[in-house]
User: Which sequence fits this backbone?
């Protein structure tokens, strides 16, 4: 029986720049400790088009690798070759962008629904005067001695 996705662990080993693309290198370590090199190419202009930040690309490319391994396992593919090169397609970037927009919308909706109304408190009298308890001195006519 072939290796399962849970038995393959990926580690990013670096990246290179190649004609407008960032090529991320990963190493997969199988159950038998065999090391397999993988690369995932991501077009930087396309990622900007879909609003994908550069910092997000390594994790997204790792997701492509993991999904690729799942597809290979589901289809009972032949043994994994010692070197694999994949590309992050425009369709995958578009799907990721749509998922991010939907997640942001759901988060915004959740934030607004979680806001609580401030509790109603007794209002202070409209003409509140802290000195109203002190009686005023009677007025003396002008010129009178004190």
Assistant:
């Amino acid at each position: 029986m072939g290796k399962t996705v849970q038995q393959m662990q990926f580690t990013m080993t670096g990246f290179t720049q190649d004609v407008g693309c960032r090529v991320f290198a990963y190493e997969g370590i199988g159950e038998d400790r065999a090391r397999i090199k993988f690369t995932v190419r991501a077009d930087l202009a396309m990622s900007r088009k879909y609003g994908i930040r550069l910092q997000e690309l390594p994790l997204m490319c790792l997701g492509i690798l993991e999904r690729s391994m799942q597809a290979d396992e589901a289809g009972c593919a032949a043994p994994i070759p010692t070197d694999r090169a994949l590309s992050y397609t425009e369709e995958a970037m578009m799907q990721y962008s749509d998922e991010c927009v939907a997640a942001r919308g759901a988060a915004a909706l959740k934030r607004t629904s979680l806001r609580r109304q401030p509790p109603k408190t007794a209002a202070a009298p409209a003409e509140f005067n802290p000195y109203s308890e002190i009686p005023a001195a009677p007025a003396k006519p002008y010129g009178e001695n004190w």
